[in-house]
Design a protein that fits this description.
The chain is α+β, with helices and mostly antiparallel strands. It folds into 3 domains: 4-56, OB fold (Dihydrolipoamide Acetyltransferase, E2P) (Beta Barrel); 69-145, Nucleic acid-binding proteins (OB fold (Dihydrolipoamide Acetyltransferase, E2P)); 149-228, Ribosomal Protein S8, Chain: A, domain 1. The chain contains 5 helices and 17 strands. The strands form 4 sheets. A 5-stranded mixed beta barrel has the order 9-10-11-13-12. A 4-stranded antiparallel beta sheet has the order 1-3-6-5, with no helix packed on it. Strand 9 (69-77) and strand 10 form a beta hairpin. 34% of the residues are buried.
Length: 238
């Protein structure tokens, strides 16, 4: 079977358009796998980095900022660290010293720590004027993510999803008992009972769709109560 990219880098594609053929390619943000092909999930510009095929949204792209916590996917294992896709036009690099407090001997197999396709919660520690981005795994809550499911939303919607002092995402966590991590780059991870993960994902999508409308907090509380039977209303809409 021929394995190759079916479109040009930086080409504009439409939803459902085939982007790559072969199981050696990894679907990045904005794409999905269908059999041995990777297809476009939305309108966007193709970006191919290593074996990862992703789409860059034509508007509302994530612009990396120091101290942002993001969810990234390993797309390349380097001699001195790892390259991550952080759902930005620019990839990030995590060096050995920023990856772990554990001593890593010279010449070690770095895939024993993080392999291609692994997802991690990390923090941006440096952004240069040339858009070279460094991330670190040293800090509370920063870790490799195992299992669960991911969705991608517009980074512009992240503050509404989190809510004031974490109130909105807190309601979803309380109702579904899912662990939820919201990356500033618009990648969100859910981990819980499968049926509750679905409810949590739908709640987040509802926030994104209705973020411009008033009374959102109460509508999300009502949705969660109807879906889970848990009353998480926090005393009025915001």
């Amino acid at each position: 079977m021929t394995e190759n990219v079916l479109v040009k880098d930086k080409e504009i594609v439409v939803p459902g358009e085939p982007l790559a053929q072969g199981m050696s390619f990894l679907p990045g943000p904005g794409t999905y796998r269908d059999g041995d092909r990777i297809l476009a999930q939305r309108l966007g510009m193709v970006s191919v980095e290593g074996k990862v095929v992703k789409l860059i949204a034509l508007s509302g792209r994530y612009s990396p900022k120091i101290k942002d916590k993001v969810i990234g996917k390993v797309i390349d294992v380097l001699m001195t660290g790892w390259r991550l896709d952080i759902a930005s036009p620019y990839s990030a690099v995590m060096t050995l010293k920023d990856a772990t407090s554990e001593f890593i001997p010279r010449g070690a197999d770095l895939t024993q720590y993080y392999g291609l396709g692994d997802s991690v919660v990390c923090q941006i520690v440096n952004v240069t004027s040339q858009k070279l981005i460094d991330v670190s795994m040293k800090g509370p809550g920063l870790r490799k993510l195992r299992g669960g499911r991911f969705i991608e939303v517009s980074p512009l919607k992240v503050p509404r999803i989190i809510g004031k002092d974490g109130s909105m995402v807190g309601m979803i966590k309380n109702a579904t008992k899912c662990e939820i991590i919201v990356g500033q780059n618009g990648i969100i991870w859910f981990d819980g009972a499968p049926e509750m993960e679905v409810i949590a994902v739908n709640a987040v999508k509802k926030i994104c769709d209705e973020a411009h409308l008033g009374g959102l907090t109460q509508r999300i509380a009502d949705f969660l109560k109807e879906s889970t039977g848990v009353d998480v209303a926090q005393g009025g809409a915001q």
